[in-house]
Specification:
Layout lengths: L3 H31 L11
Length: 45
C-alpha cells in the first residue's frame, strides 16, 4: 500500500489535470464562438 500523502498528492494531481482540461475546453469554445464568422466550409477538403 502507498502512503496516504502519496495517494493524496496523486488525487490532487488528477484533480488539477482534470480542471486544466475543463479550462482548456472552455477557452476552446470561447475562441470558437468568437471566430464563428471565419468558419471553414465543410466541402473544402
Amino acid at each position: 500500500m502507498k502512503k496516504p500523502s502519496q495517494a493524496r498528492s496523486l488525487w490532487i494531481a488528477v484533480g488539477l489535470a482534470f480542471g486544466l482540461l475543463i479550462a482548456a475546453w472552455c477557452v476552446f469554445f470561447v475562441i470558437a464562438s468568437r471566430n464563428r464568422v471565419q468558419e471553414v466550409p465543410v466541402h473544402a477538403r
